[in-house]
Design brief:
The protein contains 8 helices and 11 strands. It is α/β, with parallel strands linked by helices and about 220 residues long. The protein folds into 2 domains: about 120 residues, Response regulator (Rossmann fold, 3-Layer(aba) Sandwich); about 90 residues, Arc Repressor Mutant, subunit A (Orthogonal Bundle), CATH 1.10.10.10. It has a 5-stranded parallel beta sheet, sandwiched between helices. Strands 6-7-8-9 form a 4-stranded antiparallel beta sheet, covered by helices on one side. β6 and β7 form a beta hairpin. α2 packs parallel to α3 and α6 packs across α8. It is elongated and about 55 Å long. Keywords: DNA-binding, Phosphoprotein, Transcription, Transcription regulation, Two-component regulatory system.
């Protein structure tokens, strides 16, 4: 999954980005409201972490612009302000959740997981497809209870497909959600990761839908 962090404090931005990358996400960063708005308006993100106190354009204005442009990605607002009215303003502007500074990084990670799974219509961090089980909190995959060792890129591909289980996901969509803005994107690499996943999982849950993309479905439902 691909995230955007919009935070002008460079140390905090780096800490958030590092923690999210360690948790398995692909992360883009912005340090002011204008840059953040542009990225959120032009790139597909699975969730955004947005500070309210931004230079150039404040976080509330950025969020309002996104929502007016029908950008519906989940947004977690960060604020150093204690007044309840600021939190209400963020929610009214279109935020899905908020965290007040200072915060524990684990809380941010948990809230991001919740936003992503709710956006995809899932209630928990556990995703099952036949004998395949993916634990999004622990970033672990098992097949019939046996741990499967995956590279970070293989895990991201499987996690995105499992999150959207039953839906056809195009190569383009996978590429856009698995690599940051600076990555030299080549959809052919997706085919390589899919091939590796099939070999490692040793169970037929990833279906190729000719001309459209891929779909995760239980073995009895896969073509």
């Amino acid at each position: 999954m691909r995230l955007l962090v919009v935070e002008d404090d460079r140390d905090l931005n780096r800490q958030l980005t590092d923690a999210l990358k360690t948790a398995g996400y692909v992360v883009d960063s912005a340090f002011n409201g204008e840059e953040g708005h542009f990225l959120g308006d032009t790139e597909p993100y699975d969730a955004v972490i947005l500070d309210l106190g931004l230079p150039e354009v404040d976080g509330i204005s950025v969020l309002e612009r996104w929502r007016k442009s029908d950008r519906m990605m989940p947004v977690l607002v960060l604020t150093a302000r204690d007044r309840w009215s600021d939190k209400v303003a963020g929610i009214d502007a279109g935020a899905d959740d908020y965290v007040s500074k200072p915060f524990h990084m684990e809380e941010v990670l948990a809230r991001v997981r919740a936003l992503i799974r709710r956006a995809a219509g899932n209630a928990t961090n556990d995703y099952h497809c036949g004998p395949v089980h993916l634990d999004a909190k622990a970033s672990k995959v098992t097949v019939d209870g046996t741990m499967v060792k995956l590279t970070s890129h293989e895990y991201r591909v499987l996690a995105y497909l499992m999150l959207h289980q039953g839906r056809i996901v195009s190569r383009t969509e996978l590429t856009e959600h698995l690599y940051d803005q600076d990555f030299d994107r080549d959809s052919n690499t997706i085919e390589v990761f899919i091939g590796r996943l099939r070999k490692k999982l040793k169970v037929d849950v990833i279906e190729t839908v000719r001309g459209l993309g891929y779909r995760v479905a239980p073995p009895e439902n896969a073509a």
